Every structure is written in structure tokens, then in C-alpha cells.
Amino acid sequence: MNALQQTAGRRRGEAAEQTREKILRAAVAEFGAKGYAGARTAGIAARAGVNQQLISYYFGGKQGLLDELRRRWAATEAAAVPSDASFADAVSGYLDVTLEQPDWARLMIWQGLGDGHAGGEHDGAQRVKLQDAVERLRRRQADGEVTDELDAEFLLLIVYAVAFAPIALPGVVSGIFGVDPLSAEYRDRCSEQLRRLAEPGGVRE
């Protein structure tokens, strides 16, 4: 293969990767707006400005798109919230990654409401993930990092509620806080309040 062929091949590869990324961005926007069940590959293709057949070519269809988005979300979460992060850093990281990707958060809300793609293996994996998170909180409590005056399950639920409220109830959040629900100010204030709530001695009767 000569230099011209190598250059042409590299450019084709770059163009293909750009197309894949456009499709993925369009998919998460379409899923967030309509849920997995309501989304159509034609709508995703229209958002991406590509031929609908390319979705099947690159991802095998709508389910393949969702699977790839889940893998990316898991990697994003892992990078934002490393396993050795403190509770305060973990909360801040989770708030950031959730509110910076509101379309993905909307998809998770659709799923929680019983959207068509939920169930089976994915539901099982989600339950395991949440139970692992509860156990990590219990270890933090045992180590004295987090108050044991609250149930670990309840504390984790509060974190999820704070993270998803700006997506599910933006008008309520803006009415209470007087700020943009997706703003850094909301994240900073809630991160600080959760830290104070969770620290030993932070809960008083």
C-alpha cells in the first residue's frame, strides 16, 4: 500500500468515526426526548443528517445504539467517580456527569418509568449496581466517613433524587433555588448540603 492509499484509508476511517459519533449524539437526544420505545431509527438518522441504513451498518440497529451508549455512560461514570473517591467527591462527580448529559438522564428517567427497553438482563445489572452502591455507603459508615444516623439506602436515594430532580422537575428546582436547574450553582449548593448531611454529626434531632 502506497502513501496515497494509506492517507485515503485514514481519511475514510476518520470520516466513518465522525459519522458514528454523530449517530450516537443523535441517538441519545432522540432516546431522551421519546424514550427507547418511542424513538425510531428514522428520527435518529434525521437528527444526525445521515442515511438511516448507516445505523444498521455501524450499530446493528436501535438496540445496538443503546448498548454502545450504555458502555460509554458506564465509562464516563467510572472516570467521573473513581472507586477511591471520597463521598463528597463522588457526589460532586455524579452530579456533574448527570447534569452535563441531560439527554442521558432523561433516558434513565424513561427507563425508570417502565420504558420498553427495560427488563431482563439490564434490570438485573442495575439492581446489582445499586446494591453495590449501598454496600459501599455502609462501608463508609463503618469507617466513620459517613453518618450512620441515616440508612445507607435512604442516603443513596437522596443523592439520586438531587441528581435527577433538575431533569424530572426543572420548574420545581428553579422555583425553590431560583437558579438554572442545570447550573454549576445548583450542583455546588447541593453537593455541599449533601456533604453536610452525610458527615458524622451532621444529622441532629
Could you explain how this protein is built, in words?
The protein has 205 residues and is mainly alpha-helical. It has two domains: 1-68, Homeodomain-like (Arc Repressor Mutant, subunit A, Orthogonal Bundle); 81-205, Tetracycline Repressor, domain 2. It is 77% helix and 0% strand. The chain contains ten helices and no strands. The chain has helices spanning 3-38, 41-48, 53-59, 62-80, 87-99, 102-112, 120-142, 152-168, 170-177, 184-198. Helix 1 (3-38) packs across helix 2 (41-48), helix 7 crosses helix 8 (152-168) and helix 8 (152-168) packs antiparallel against helix 10. The chain is elongated. The termini are far apart. The mean pLDDT is 89.
Give a quick precis of the structure.
By secondary structure, the protein is mostly helical. Helix content is 77%, strand content 0%.
Structure keywords:
205 residues, mainly alpha, Arc Repressor Mutant, subunit A, Tetracycline Repressor, domain 2, 2 domains, 10 helices, 0% strand
How far apart are the first and last residues' alpha carbons, in Å? 75 Å
> According to CATH, what is the topology of the largest domain?
Tetracycline Repressor, domain 2
Tell me the count of domains. 2
- Using the coordinates above, name the CATH class of the largest domain: Mainly Alpha
Return the average pLDDT rounded to an integer.
89
The rounded Rg comes to: 20 Å
Number of strands: 0
Unreliable runs, pLDDT <50, ≥5 residues? none
Q: Helix/strand-derived class?
A: mainly alpha
Shape: elongated
Number of helices in the DSSP assignment: 10
Oligomer: single chain
The topology string of helices and strands comes to HHHHHHHHHH
CATH architecture of the largest domain: Orthogonal Bundle
CATH superfamily caption of the largest domain: Tetracycline Repressor, domain 2
The helix content is over 70%
Largest sheet: none
Report the β-strand fraction as a percent range. Answer: under 5%
